[in-house]
Amino acid sequence: MKTTISQVHKYVDQEVTIGAWIANKRSSGKIAFLQLRDGTGFIQGVIVKAEVEEELFQKAKGLTQETSVYVTGIVRKDERSPLGFELGVTNVEIIHEAVDYPITPKKHGTDFLMDHRHLWLRSKRQHSVMKIRNEIIRATYEFFNENGFVKVDPPILTGTSAEGTTELFHTKYFDEDAYLSQSGQLYMEAAAMALGKVFSFGPTFRAEKSKTRRHLIEFWMIEPEMSFVEHEENLEIQEQYVSYLVQSVLKNCKLELETLGRDTSKLEKIRAPFPRITYDDAIKLLHEQGFDDIQWGEDFGAPHETAIAESFDMPVFITHYPTEIKSFYMKPDPTRADVVLCADLIAPEGYGEIIGGSQRIDDPKLMKERYEAHNLDAEAYKWYLDLREYGSVPHSGFGLGLERTVAWIAGLEHIRETIPFPRLLNRLYP
């Protein structure tokens, strides 16, 4: 019976064949242990010399790391194994022998591993990270589908910036200037006016010359946009969504979290509702903690976000930022024009902002004023103003950074491990 490692629990005490790679191997005079991986998981294969032909035992002892094989054996329960099973090997067929595989079980430097990212992905740790990333993506689709959202795909090439900044990747679009998308938000607002509640999931690009452990040049964003939803309801949807992601990973990625050594007790308490703190109160909190460098009207940096997060054991919303430091499309608080109806969601344990969201301006007159104040090209953004001219409604949305969320849930030190092939300031290979 041909199967995969993830399915061996169905075949206890039966003989199966698995296509796999040799992740590692050790042997003594009488027994050989093969660490097998097939993409779905890892399992140990055991070959006892006294129970097999001498030729098979010698073949097993000679297997090299990352050699591809078909392994046949009896599935046995094994409580010592993280998987709960092992394979009593009865035959090994070599598909392709790997010679001098560069990533050995010894410790390697980060640059070496990044240069060999295409191979480093095969390791047990990286396998676990990618499985957690996949679970977050799966749970994202499940959450939004179950809550009446429609998936819409915004363009990657755009003629304008969503944020009105200069940190864009420029390219030529035939005879016009174009840019790689920073965000699909503006297009998602148009989709929300047609379909009510929508979400996108796609790549975004930021030409920031940053080398911090939280930044990537290319990353993936989940961006919901919702008609007839105002600020407070927007926050409630965000905290429900994030809680759903965390609980889904806890339920479906126990082995992967264990492999990464993640303290799951910190994740188990992540359930809506989340605490909220206004920007005003966050400034006061920082001053009380000795951060005299930050003044009202300035944006928070990583140390400030970490200090605020340490006052809570849950993700925390920082709401009502100053109008002057936020994007042109955010709606002012009706009671205070100097702040907007927005929030950043800060993850615990020093992982920083994972969501930015706001209620959007729905008044065409105010939006025109914002165009002028931000020196935006009225012709280029005319279509965006049309959304306010023809049946404008209160609407809100947010963007969740997938990689930062993976880093937090998986407990990773650096964001570069959260994406299969990271694009960093000085890295475009492999």
From TrEMBL:
PANTHER family (alphabetical): ASPARAGINE--TRNA LIGASE, MITOCHONDRIAL-RELATED, ASPARTYL/LYSYL-TRNA SYNTHETASE
Residues in the signal sequence: none
Subunit: Homodimer.
Cellular component terms per the entry's GO annotation: cytoplasm
Gene3D superfamilies xref list: Bira Bifunctional Protein, Domain 2, Nucleic acid-binding proteins
One of the GO biological process terms: asparaginyl-tRNA aminoacylation
Pfam family, one: tRNA-synt_2
Ranges of residues in domain Aminoacyl-transfer RNA synthetases class-II family profile: 130-430
Protein name per UniProt: Asparagine--tRNA ligase
Catalysed reactions, semicolon-separated: tRNA(Asn) + L-asparagine + ATP = L-asparaginyl-tRNA(Asn) + AMP + diphosphate + H(+)
InterPro entries reported in the protein's UniProt record: Aa-tRNA-synt_II, aa-tRNA-synth_II, aa-tRNA-synth_II/BPL/LPL, Asn-tRNA-ligase, Asp/Asn-tRNA-synth_IIb, NA-bd_OB-fold, NA-bd_OB_tRNA
Family named by the database record: Belongs to the class-II aminoacyl-tRNA synthetase family.
